[in-house]
From TrEMBL:
Protein name listed in UniProt: Multidrug transporter
Membrane topology: Multi-pass membrane protein
Organism: Pseudoxanthomonas suwonensis
Alphabetical list of CDD domains matching this protein: MFS_MefA_like
Subcellular location: Cell membrane
Residue ranges of coiled coil: none
Alphabetical list of Pfam families matching this protein: MFS_3
Transmembrane segment boundaries: 22-44, 50-71, 83-106, 112-137, 149-173, 179-200, 229-252, 264-281, 293-310, 376-399
Keyword Transmembrane helix: yes
Keywords noted in UniProt: Cell membrane, Membrane, Transmembrane, Transmembrane helix, Transport
Keyword Nucleus: no
A single Gene Ontology CC term: plasma membrane
Gene3D superfamilies per record: MFS general substrate transporter like domains
Source organism superkingdom: Bacteria
């Protein structure tokens, strides 16, 4: 990591458009995270079944996967700000539906309307990251991408810290209905902020490429790039098998014996660690030996998940999750920088959507996997096993992807 050259590049925060884009990302993720932590508490309160927490993830990930590739195509061919604002309106609609459910106006005491509302979240969430990724490259210069990715990660992880904390506090002090209402308000603010962004979006001349042919081009690009594919697969399986955080409501109540405020702390701890490492990487962007750093970071993530599963003390569990966030934060910055540097402008939406299927869906699939394994094996064995599988994934990736091991980001800039 070379600090001097990085600091010689103007800070991305000097760009007004980038600041507006960060505001959109921050508010949208705050809304989503408040809903996520509140829904987890809401469903477990009704069912007392860890498997139901996995079904929440499944209800979101299936529509997300089903629409992600088409969302990427639309982002590459339609006005990005309007698509992002429409997606934020969808997030607000989900939160308002959950507000009515929590208040007892829709099917009180039943879980199916909660799952139905979460399906809408999965549909609209597929647009959020491709919109951000495509606009990111329009408001920053190429030499600012590495620092911009680090700062973007800080904003993202800050929302992951504040969102669960706000959700847990609101549930504990004001109730689930108030938490959902706050999430709806933040989603509307995110949409308004994005519409205020002033950026000249490139116009597509001539007829649009066929939908499926265009999607196929994006898929071939990703699968033919060993470094990008290996980084995405590594993150996919690490999060899939190491998704302990989805079981936090069950750990809080059955093992650690805390209330909803404790749930907010555990959900926020990984993001707090990621924010801390993001601040460091914003000043000293990763460069040489970036591939090795990525592999070590994911291995550290697996070890932290094992520690969390074995812990019986609340603050020790929070510490392990904090350290897992440090490792995950390194992975996020490296993966985002790789994607921005190697992707042509004309297919950023499609590539971001493919990345979203690998990465975004892994959180929800990980929640379903963790809930299913907890039902079969119990809470602790399910989490510990997931951590060891993550270590195995790192070993296989290190052997099968030599270009990732030798990755030097300086060569891509």
């Amino acid at each position: 990591m070379d600090a001097a050259p990085a600091l010689a590049v103007p800070s991305p925060l000097r760009e007004p458009g980038y600041r507006v884009l960060l505001g959109y990302r921050l508010c949208a993720i705050l809304s989503y995270q408040i809903v996520a932590v509140t829904v987890g508490w809401h469903v477990y309160e009704l069912t007392r079944n860890p498997f139901s927490l996995g079904l929440v993830g499944l209800a979101e990930v299936l529509p997300f996967i089903g629409t992600a590739l088409f969302a990427g195509y639309l982002v590459d061919h339609l006005p990005k700000r309007r698509l992002g604002a429409a997606a934020c309106a969808g997030l607000a609609t989900t939160a308002l539906l959950l507000t009515l459910i929590s208040a007892g106006h829709l099917a009180p005491g039943q879980t199916w309307p909660i799952y139905a509302a979460i399906v809408l979240t999965g549909l609209v969430r597929s647009f959020l990251t491709p919109v951000y990724t495509a606009l990111f490259a329009q408001v920053l210069r190429r030499e600012q991408f590495a620092r911009g990715a680090s700062i973007g990660s800080i904003a993202f992880q800050t929302a992951l810290v504040c969102g669960p904390a706000l959700g847990g506090i609101m549930v504990g002090w004001a109730g689930k209905t108030a938490a959902y209402a706050l999430a709806a308000l933040l989603a509307l603010v995110a949409g308004g902020v994005l519409l205020a962004l002033r950026v000249a979006e490139p116009r597509t001349d001539g007829p649009r490429a066929p939908v499926f042919g265009s999607i196929a081009v994006g898929l071939r690009f990703v699968f033919n790039n060993q470094v990008m594919l290996a980084a995405q697969v590594l993150d996919l399986f690490a999060v899939l098998f190491g998704g302990a955080i989805s079981l936090a409501p069950a750990f809080i109540q059955e093992i650690l014996h805390y209330g909803p405020q404790g749930l907010g702390i555990l959900r926020a701890a990984p993001a707090l660690g990621a924010v801390a490492v993001g601040i460091v990487l914003a000043r000293r962007p990763p460069g040489r030996h970036a591939g090795r750093l990525l592999l070590w970071a994911v291995a550290g993530f697996g070890l932290c998940i094992i520690g969390f599963g074995l812990s019986r003390h609340f603050w020790l569990s929070a510490l392990f999750l904090l350290l897992s966030g440090v490792c995950d934060g390194v992975s996020v910055v490296l993966r985002t920088t790789i994607m921005q540097l190697v992707t042509p402008d004309g297919m950023r939406g499609r590539v971001a959507s493919i990345n979203g299927i690998f990465i975004g869906s892994s959180n929800e699939l990980g929640a379903f996997y963790a809930g299913s394994m907890a039902r079969l094996l119990g809470l602790v064995p399910a989490v510990v096993l997931g951590g060891f599988v993550t270590l195995g994934v790192v070993g296989v990736t290190a052997v099968k992807a030599p270009r990732l091991r030798r990755l030097d980001l300086k060569e891509l800039q």
